[in-house]
Amino acid sequence: MNPHNSSILLIYTGGTIGMIENPETGALENFSLEQLQKHIPELSQFSFHIATYQFDPPMDSSDIDPEVWRRLVQIIVANYDRYTGFVILHGTDTMAYTASALSFMLEGLNKAVILTGSQLPIGVLRTDGKENLLTSIEIAGALDEAGNSLVPEVSIFFENHLMRGNRTTKINAENFNAFRSFNFPVLARAGIHIKYNNVQLHPHDVHPKLKPHYLLDANVAILKIFPGIQENVVASILNIEGLKGVILETYGSGNAPRKEWLLRRLSNACESGMVVVNITQCNAGSVEMERYETGYQLLQAGVVSGYDSTTESAVTKLMFLLGHGHTPEVVRQQMCISLAGEITV
Ligand code: ASP
């Protein structure tokens, strides 16, 4: 397909990629999209149209929250028919959360939404931002013979790899190779050629209809188990007023200490309508609560499996499902179903 038919909306939210060093203080400060374009003159060499949308002021991704995810969905919805793909420049710290949230909020997505950023600011000679941005745009603009996007889903492009957004985690605070998709193959690799993993990519919906969702309920918490964890710590989390869901980060294949108080507290929480989802602290692999007694007891307490979910995906999916106002039973059922390719059941 002629790439002239592509057009990209580049949404600049902020992050290191758009920063420059203050010569006096040495601190990194945001600069504008215009300056960004000045540092990457190659942008003008794409044969297709690239329009831009800038957050003003740009945000460090530590400040990004569900309100910003809603805003991003609104921007994409408002421009959906006008562009063939979207590239979101985003700080790396919470990029995997945003990508996960968008994958649930943009139901029926049939175009590429690629998040990227960098470890070194674009104004620095050895920046990784240039390569990440240019390749993201190229992939977002890639169409098949019929004019359909090659990557009709929310993904993250970083250091030569295109990964499913809701499968990706930031794993390194300083290497260029900062993101990993441990439990799902990469969607594309960029070398001399960009090689797409067609078997793994979301298939094209023949009746595409974008169905945006805006409701999220952030009354959730993450409870990480560790040897020696005390009852009052667990109790103080499970008793938070208004809390509706907990992501329980357990050991290995979903195991937790066999303490009477832990099971009692979890079981009471589940009975009173709290949704407790078990995911593993390990980077790779899946929860299998039936495997050991120490996992089985959680299943009996009413905890549901998050399978091979990343923390980022589990948290945002829980917010998304709770935002729909579903009953705890429905939320539990849906947590165990893949909604956007986020788990392998
Ligand atoms: N603190 C920055 C952010 O997440 C880090 C980065 O972009 O890499 O916005």
CATH architecture of the largest domain: 3-Layer(aba) Sandwich
What is the terminal separation in angstroms? 36 Å
What is the spatial order of strands in the main beta sheet? 4-1-5-7-8-9-12-13
CATH superfamily heading of the largest domain: L-asparaginase, N-terminal domain
Total discrete domains = 2
Helical region count? 9
Bound molecules: aspartic acid
Structure description:
The protein has helices spanning 33-39, 66-79, 95-105, 129-140, 231-238, 260-271, 293-301, 311-323, 328-335, and strands at residues 7-12, 19-21, 28-30, 49-54, 85-89, 106-107, 112-116, 154-158, 161-164, 169-170, 179-180, 188-190, 194-196, 211-212, 220-224, 245-250, 275-280, 304-305. The model has no long low-confidence stretch (mean pLDDT 93). Helix content is 27%, strand content 20%. It folds into two domains: 3-212, Rossmann fold (3-Layer(aba) Sandwich), CATH 3.40.50.1170; 220-335, Rossmann fold. The strands form five sheets. It has an eight-stranded mixed sheet with strand order 4-1-5-7-8-9-12-13. A four-stranded parallel sheet has the order 15-16-17-18, sandwiched between helices. A two-stranded antiparallel ribbon has the order 2-3. It is of the alpha/beta class. Aspartic acid binds at residues 14-16, 60-62, 91-93, 117, 119.
